[in-house]
Amino acid sequence: MRARAKDLLVSAALLAVGRRRRRARRLRPGEVERIVPEGPPSEGGELLALALLALGTILAVGFVVVYALDRAPAQTQLMGATLGSSLLCIAAALIVMAKRLVVTEEIEDDYPVIEHPEEQETIAQVVEDSGSRITRRRLFKLAFLGAGGALTAALVTPAASLGPFLRIKYFYGTPWRRGRRLVDESGKPWRASDIEERDFYTAFPEGADKEEEGSAVVLVRLAQGQLSLPSELAQYPANGIVAYSKICTHAGCAINLYRTPLFPPNDPSPPELVCPCHYSTFDPGRGGTVTFGPAGRKLPMLPLQIDSRGFLRAAGNFDEPVGPSWWGVRLHGPTP
Amino acid sequence: MIRAVVRYLDQRSGAAPLVRKTLRYLFPDHWSFLLGEVALYSFIVLVATGTYLALFYQDSTAMVTYHGPYGPLQGQEMSEAYRSVLNISTTVKAGLLIRQTHHWAADVFIATVTLHALRIFFTGAYRKPRELTYWLGLSMLVVALLEGYLGYSLVDDLLSGMGLAIGNGVALSIPFIGANLGELIWGGPFPGTHDFFARMYIFHVFLIPLLIAVMLGAHLALVALRHHTQFRSERRQTERKLVGVPTYPGQTPRSLGLMLAVAGVLFLLGGLVQINPIWLWGPYHTYAATNGAQPDWYLGWLIGGLRLVPSFDLTIGHYTVIPNPFWGGALFPMLVFGFLFAWPLLERRWTGDTRYHNLLDRPRDAPGRTAIGVGFVTWVFLVFVAGSADRVYVFFGLNYSSQLWFYRGAVFVAPFVTGLIAHRVCVELQRGEQVERRRRRAEEEARAAHA
Question: Which residues pair with B399 in a beta bridge?
Fold first, then answer.
């Protein structure tokens, strides 16, 4: 132990002496020892950095000029070009300075000590000692836990005003009811004769809010032989026209793709309704069943009827709740 | 003059010892250490440009009729929010430049955070004593994804609305609480009440940026307290000795230069490379959609996840327990981030390595970790690519459903393949180095024997 300490002392002394000697050689009387080592000046580097700074200045001024000039063509592009290049020139000047005008020191340093056992002990002791007057510790812990929990609950309670989060019934509501006419985006009623095969129409309940998820439906007319509905849906079409909710049951996007085989009639693939967000694909001839893609639930179908003047009317509400699914979505049918 | 200023400030703050230490704080040098720095500077650009945009933006969904200079939308009904962003893009001078720069900065920010996280993973920089820094960084990535999503939702154009509808669908799909949560966030069933935009706005411009700033401060403070990690490129670099360039003078011009360069590139992109031309999409309605819509790149993995899952709801009889969007939109990201958060603990359990590490591994030094990392990245990347299968169909005519079936298989197989290959490559590289070392030693011995 002592021998090691002696070794250390000797080497430290040698180091100190050696260092002083080296320094003493460089320093002139009255001169202070440098911290950052010296380096030779670089005239080229200075000129380059100054030139880049000048260019950056000109470009920044150029930005102001472009901004001030009304009706400059491609103003956004010119502003971006001048401001961006100005920043890049000044950045380049700084990099040139870093590389050629500032001494790059590669120095060593110790990593900080990993831990401070003494301080750790002091902290723990202070905390322990401070609580020594309290005798019923467990009770206090419980009391604070209870108070903290209750207070947190109280503070979170106003968040309940954000939305009617216990009233799930809103999800089942749609504006459709028996006899309601189907209208287009501008409010004009659809006639059954307007709906042609191989085309795709959007309809809303007359007088309702079009933005509600329960409102929009797609209308398509299917050829004979393309319809094969289960018995409970057999009465839903009117004269070959079927209506489905336009909101995909997967994630709530609007279905806006209708794939009908446009190639020769020997192609057996049936027409399909497709959602453009995740390509859930539904079969309008079979009551909106999922044929491909992620949707886990069929498309809600709206029963139709045609009144004496030829206008399309709803014959009731959808057969399934509208919109993306949630827990328990199929517990109820849709409500008007 | 310098001395007078320093003395004046030190006499009043007593900060001279701290400043002296800071000036001589060391930065080890490697290009990959700049990724985090670029992310930081993108964040600064985001705050600056975002503040400017907030001076013009209206968070109102009240319907107005458009009478601005953009012809094709003339007379259309739209929300005040969308009109205000149209005005920023058309009538506010420099508005389009700032808006596009903001959008580019968001994309670059999340890209560099991601690359930074990969660098940290593959070099083992998250190991003790830096786990907290790692977890803070990951949390910032999660929050940044949400922040980006809110940002492009606030525009209220057609793409915003479609994105929000999907977000609503995913929220509703959370088992047992989804519908309730959705009603709390939106104020009712989709598209929600007018308050919803005010809620998004305060989160996007205040709460989340503040949260990121606080986490960023803690992240940087932890980095500085423990000092940077380093690769061992010189003999004097050890677990206890750090070699680097001091803050001043060496590092300061480099960092300032990098900051201005990042800002410069972002403004060049914002001025010259169009991003999200919102006037083309028009206003959103629940009954409107467009085909070929793609989100910003950093949400591509989620749209891929949503599209890949086959038609499947978890149901008991007539009771739906877990609807489909949960798998791709919620469970998948939870697995991804769950793995990343748990990784330092998992690795420590498997390797039993509880030592302190200041020296970085090269990927080849830890073949097991590299293999798992490569497999994991392959998995997420395949899902990401699956999200663009529709574009591949449009450009190359490859059948969409065949592509999807391919990806549905590949996501289970490919990670193991790439992981095994990565492992092999690491082991071979290590062996190559051993051979090289042995050869050099033999040559030296031979030379010594001759002499």
Answer: none
- Residues B395, B335: one domain? no
In this prediction, residue A197 has a pLDDT band, given cuts at 50, 70 and 90, of confident
Give the structural domain span for B408. Answer: 362-451
Residue B331 has a CB neighbour count (10 Å cut-off) of 17
CATH number of the domain enclosing B94: 1.20.810.10
In chain B, residues with a C-beta closer than 8 Å to the C-beta of A92 are 257, 261
Highest mean pLDDT, choosing among A67-76, A225-234, B210-219: B210-219
The sign of the torsion formed by the CA atoms of A317, A322, A325, A326 equals: negative
Instruction: Give the strand pairing for A217-221 and B314-316.
Output: unpaired
Whether residue B395 is contained in a domain is answered as: yes
Radius of gyration of chain B (CA): 26
The 10 Å Cβ neighbour count of residue A84 is 25
CA B423 to chain centre: 26
Task: Please name the member of A92, A102, A246 whose beta carbon is closest to the beta carbon of B249.
Answer: A102
Assess A55–B contact: CB distance below 8 Å, yes or no. no
What local confidence, expressed as pLDDT, does residue B140 receive?
98
Partners of A161 in beta bridges: none
The total number of structural domains in chain B stands at 2
Q: Please check whether residues B439 and B302 belong to one and the same domain.
A: no
How confident is the model over B283-340, as pLDDT tens digits? 999 999 988 888 999 999 999 999 999 998 999 988 999 999 999 999 999 999 999 9
**Residue B3 at interface with chain A, using a CB cutoff of 8 Å:** no
**pLDDT tens column, B258-295:** 999 999 999 999 999 999 999 998 999 999 998 888 89
Alpha-carbon A139 to chain mean position:
46
pTM: 0.92
Where do the structural domains in chain A lie, given as residue ranges?
A: 41-102, 164-336
What Å distances lie between residue A40 and A37, A44, A68, CA to CA?
10, 12, 45
pLDDT digits (tens, 9 = 90+) for B160-217: 999 999 999 999 999 999 999 999 999 999 999 999 999 999 999 999 999 999 999 9
Same domain? For B445 and B324 the reply is: no
- In a domain? residue B356: no
| CATH code for the part of the protein at A164-336 | 2.102.10.10
B11 inside domain = no
| B102 & B175 share domain | yes
Query: Does A53 lie at the interface with B, CB-CB under 8 angstroms?
Result: no
The radius of gyration of chain A's CA atoms, rounded to the nearest angstrom, is 40
Q: How many angstroms separate the CA atoms of A162 and B173, rounded?
A: 19
Q: Dihedral sign for Cα B303, B309, B315, B318, please.
A: positive
B200 and B255 share one domain: yes
Q: Is residue B352 part of a domain?
A: no
The answer to whether B307 contacts chain A (CB < 8 Å) is yes
What is the predicted pLDDT for the residue at A20?
A: 45
* Beta-carbon separation of A254 and B286 below 8 A: yes
Instruction: Report pLDDT digits (tens) over B29-44.
Output: 999 999 999 999 999 9
Residues 6+ apart with CB under 8 A from B183: A163, A164, A165, A167, A168, A170, B189
In B313-363, beta strands by DSSP E: 314-316, 319-322
- Chain A and chain B share a number of CB contacts under 8 A equal to 302
Let me know if B204 is exposed, middle or buried by CB neighbors in 10 A (0-12, 13-18, 19+): buried
Taking a C-beta distance cutoff of 8 angstroms, is the pair B244, A107 a contact? yes
ipTM of the complex: 0.93
